[in-house]
């Protein structure tokens, strides 16, 4: 495909001191040649591909030096977009970077739309749709683990699995075809039925597995909504502060996130915690007394993780027991705080009430036990499931919806077989699941859907 040459500022992850002006398209190298001067006077059109060159960006009209730069030249097709790509690495501030961008724009490039680089990669067949979406997730990824997940998807794990499932369905459909073409052979029909059921069940199971990972994927991207509860003075605010101070707070400059709810993001060993409505927690110190057990249950029900704080220096009170009762069946960790003071709490009693939940003792005042708490949070979340790098994670709302629909179509097919409906009706359901899975990797999408997806990307990606 032939496109015009686009350009945009593409700041690398982590907001380093370097900003990149990226160009993609047939004219990318020629355009940069108009504004770039290397000390050796060498032209970029003569340099080998995938090389980096030092020089200056010069305004061709005034002859003025705008910026000292390193320019990477990458020729098609081994580039992200499969087009010629030039990256101008600037280390000056935003103002000079903008001037460099302006210069390439006045010399023949067009300003890229948000996500247009990735869109080209998709349209040029470099990546499929789920990989493109993974790039979008990558841009938004808030923690290392979320980033690895996005990377894994980008490598095409999900695509590979989806392709395999589609292949299974396709083969099954081919067998069904045989049955429709030769209905007089009874044994073919017999075989087809049995194979249909087996294949459909297998595909359903694989889709279910993928869907099971989706909850974790969502949490990794959005943060584990976490509520700290406990009676007044047990150390809730202290706990919040040490979690925020011990761990790098996660920057939340993601477009579209609500700003009205006060949330603190912290990254605890790769688990993103969204400490929900922390201001609210400060005000509702006495969550049970103030809003009653029933209402507080409601608040707690919406949390993914509850940190229940008790006082080591006091006997377990009625309210403590009520709190322990209220969080039954939820994911919670008991924190027995103030171990620097004499023990008055009966830990055996706590153990009995907290069943098999982790109980961590801390002295937040002396900064003790915080490591144990972090360990507990991380193992609660990662034990046995997310940590293994082989799993394929589904983290995208659109994927989840399509997988759910595909699963439904498979189930319809299975029901149909059970009820003995004509096999060509079953075939329709199977075809539908095949199409739905195809939409995940972009095999059957409409232009408008593509545009909508890519418009969500940040500029310059
Ligand atoms: P909250 O009311 O549950 O939010 O409790 P705070 O975090 O405000 O703490 C109540 C009081 O307990 C403050 O004076 C803290 O300094 C103190 N405190 C918190 N953690 C500890 C601890 O581990 N040991 C001791 N001795 N005091 C603590
Ligand atoms: Zn407090």
From TrEMBL:
Record's subcellular location: Cytoplasm
SUPFAM superfamilies recorded? P-loop containing nucleoside triphosphate hydrolases, TrmE connector domain
Binding of GTP occurs at: 233-238, 252-258, 277-280
Q: Major location, coarse class?
A: cytoplasm
Provide a Gene Ontology MF annotation, just one. hydrolase activity
**Positions contributing to Mg(2+) binding:** 237, 258
The Swiss-Prot or TrEMBL record describes its family as follows: Belongs to the TRAFAC class TrmE-Era-EngA-EngB-Septin-like GTPase superfamily. TrmE GTPase family.
Q: How does it assemble?
A: Homodimer. Heterotetramer of two MnmE and two MnmG subunits.
Task: Name it.
Answer: tRNA modification GTPase MnmE
Which organism encodes this protein? Aeribacillus alveayuensis
The top of its lineage is: Bacteria, Bacillati, Bacillota, Bacilli, Bacillales
State the gene name recorded for this protein. mnmE
